[in-house]
From TrEMBL:
<feature type="binding site">
    <location>
        <position position="291"/>
    </location>
    <ligand>
        <name>Fe(2+)</name>
    </ligand>
</feature>
<feature type="binding site">
    <location>
        <position position="210"/>
    </location>
    <ligand>
        <name>Fe(2+)</name>
    </ligand>
</feature>
<keyword id="KW-0350">Heme biosynthesis</keyword>
<dbReference type="GO" id="GO:0006783">
    <property type="term" value="P:heme biosynthetic process"/>
</dbReference>
<keyword id="KW-0456">Lyase</keyword>
<keyword id="KW-0963">Cytoplasm</keyword>
<dbReference type="InterPro" id="IPR001015">
    <property type="entry name" value="Ferrochelatase"/>
</dbReference>
<comment type="function">
    <text>Catalyzes the ferrous insertion into protoporphyrin IX.</text>
</comment>
<comment type="similarity">
    <text>Belongs to the ferrochelatase family.</text>
</comment>
<dbReference type="GO" id="GO:0046872">
    <property type="term" value="F:metal ion binding"/>
</dbReference>
<keyword id="KW-0408">Iron</keyword>
<keyword id="KW-0479">Metal-binding</keyword>
<protein>
    <recommendedName>
        <fullName>Ferrochelatase</fullName>
        <ecNumber>4.98.1.1</ecNumber>
    </recommendedName>
</protein>
<dbReference type="InterPro" id="IPR033659">
    <property type="entry name" value="Ferrochelatase_N"/>
</dbReference>
<comment type="pathway">
    <text>Porphyrin-containing compound metabolism; protoheme biosynthesis; protoheme from protoporphyrin-IX: step 1/1.</text>
</comment>
<dbReference type="Pfam" id="PF00762">
    <property type="entry name" value="Ferrochelatase"/>
</dbReference>
<dbReference type="GO" id="GO:0005737">
    <property type="term" value="C:cytoplasm"/>
</dbReference>
Length: 364
């Protein structure tokens, strides 16, 4: 077999980008993950020297053990990290979707922090003949803290390559009809199974998104606006009116003001006001993870029930919902327009080899 890299079939690839997860629910593994994550200047915009002291002197020693216990509470038997499991499953099923349509597209997964690293994923695709690359973040709403950071890491790796691939980026898809339809299908599937909330009786549907410091919004990050639009479009697609659904923001950290309203206080407020049932969903997380399974499905449930609520229902993330796989395929296809999604014919490969031999003859 000819090993000349210039004679390999030229392939198109889609790389799914997600945040990452510890390799195990242990203090050591969580500490390593948190250190990489919280050392990213895109994530924490505090002067480096000051933040280094806070991170290494306070946060990592205190939070690593506590976070490890939380990860242990949501770790899947034999499967490990839910985020890793579902993200890998999404990549696998998206690849199968392309194959079902007779298209040859490489699909892989990279984590911004932890494994599989961006460098590992890119080098694996390169070894398979990737010449065209589409980056598809598993962050529907754009933020500099997530989307831009993942792009930064891709750019950093590619900056070391002599022969770079053509590159396209999916910046956001918070209002993409296929994405909204997949969210709607996930919610309706839960309601078909467990019954629809009685909104006339005061039941509420809460959409919880990951929070950000308010200063990010003031500096121009569009994330807040995109979350609100996703919430409005999903609410409308479910036939709801404002008041029946609420958009909130979770995972607040530190003393600075973050995007409001905060999820936990809103859950408490609803229960104290006499709301008996809350259905809660996290549209910004395509795959279940610590922030959804522990913070929302467990902690928020306790808050609601402790303050008078009676019926708290967590609706799982999109995970491997077939409509979400369809949506990823549609989103990717929109951005792959004009690129070859097939296998080069024998005639094309033979012509490339002939031209390569002519080129070698000239050099010699």
């Amino acid at each position: 077999m000819n090993q000349n890299p210039h004679l390999r079939p030229s392939k198109t690839a889609v790389l799914l980008l997600n945040l990452g997860t510890p390799s195990a629910p242990t203090a050591k593994a969580v500490r390593a993950y948190l250190k990489e994550f919280l050392s990213d200047p895109r994530v924490v915009e505090i002067p480096r020297i000051i933040w280094w002291c806070i991170l290494n002197g306070i946060i990592l020693p205190i939070r690593s053990g506590a976070s490890a216990k939380k990860y242990a509470s949501i770790w899947l038997p034999k499967l490990g990290s839910p985020l890793m499991h579902y993200s890998r499953l999404q990549a696998k099923e998206l690849g199968e979707k392309f194959a079902h349509h007779g298209e040859v597209v490489l699909v892989d997964l990279a984590m911004r922090y932890g494994q599989p690293s961006t460098q590992q994923a890119l080098e694996a695709l390169q070894a398979q003949g990737m010449e065209r690359l589409l980056l598809l973040p598993l962050y529907p709403q754009y933020s500099a803290t997530t989307t831009a950071s993942s792009f930064d890491e891709v750019f950093r790796v590619l900056s070391t390559w002599r022969n770079q691939p053509e590159l396209r980026l999916v910046k956001y898809y918070h209002d993409n009809p296929a994405y909204i339809s997949a969210l709607r299908d996930q919610v309706l599937g839960a309601w078909d199974k467990d019954g629809r909330p009685d909104f006339a009786a005061g039941d509420r549907f809460v959409m919880s998104f990951h929070g950000l410091p308010k200063r990010n919004l003031m500096k121009g990050d569009p994330y807040h606006c995109e979350c609100l639009k996703t919430g409005r479009l999903l609410g409308e697609s479910l036939g709801l009116v404002p008041g029946q659904y609420l958009v909130t923001f979770q995972s607040r950290f530190g003393k600075a003001e973050w995007l409001k309203p905060y999820t936990a206080p809103m859950i408490e407020e609803l229960s104290k006001a006499g709301c008996k049932r809350v259905d809660i969903f996290c549209p910004g997380f395509p795959a279940d993870c610590l922030e959804t399974l522990e913070e929302i499905a467990m902690e928020a449930r306790e808050i609601f029930l402790e303050h008078g609520g009676k019926d708290y229902r967590y609706i799982p993330c999109l995970n491997s919902n077939p409509k979400w796989i369809d949506a990823m395929y549609d989103i990717a296809h929109q951005h792959l327009s004009g690129w070859s999604l097939g296998v080069e014919s024998d005639a094309i490969l033979q012509e490339r080899e002939r031209l390569a031999e002519l080129a070698k003859a000239r050099i010699a």
